[in-house]
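#lab-general

N.A. 3:47 PM
ok so I finally got the sequence cleaned up, no stray characters, all 243 residues accounted for. can someone with queue access submit it? mine expired

B.Y. 3:52 PM
send it over

N.A. 3:53 PM
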Amino acid sequence: MTTDGIKIEVAGENSLILYFGDTTAPEISTQVQQASKKLTEALGDLIIDQVTSYASLLLIFDPLRADQLYIRKVIKNTLDSSNEGIVNTDKNAAPRSSQTCLELPVYYSEESGPELTLISNNSGLSVDEVIALHQSLTYRVYAIGFAPGFAFLGQVDERIATPRLSTPRLKVPRGAVGIADRQTAIYPDVSPGGWNLIGLCPTRMFNPEATPTMPVTVGDEVRFKAISKEEFHALGGEIGDYQ
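B.Y. 4:20 PM
back already:
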């Protein structure tokens, strides 16, 4: 089923997934966010959960109160009649401004970012130039997954885009800032991982005791700002183990 460019497919007994495109682009991400908001208003507590991603929206609904035919009908009526231009395939349309632009401090160094030298060698840029490029852009939160608070940010300058490590690490410290292809992210906790690490951020990306538990949500924007090792420690940062 499609509704003016949005493809709807079955994702489970009580879930449907909406596809808005097949590329990573701010305007598509904006459409996903707008659709999520409109469908939350239209369906209310019939929705158990929603999962937004780069170009898709997963809706999980209460199967005891609604079936797929009803949910599809509401989706079609809501998105087709929206006055906010959700169903907009104009690639040149300017994206709506995000809810938040968060500045995150990063201690960039070869001590805190073991792949800085690798990226420097691969790109032909100096380590300082790699750092400057990484913090020169404003990144959009396209998705949150892998672990709570792991925000997929895009897109990094193509000159420093680097494939994932062929052999992932068994242990990446909390706060590690990494690059994988044209994505960048901060590890919210100690975990395995295969991204190229370039620094450490002292800001907690997930805290179950805080409200909200995460400082960003899908659609927000992030900028990075270089800080010294002394500033990193003063903000509560710790140099963790890389294994």
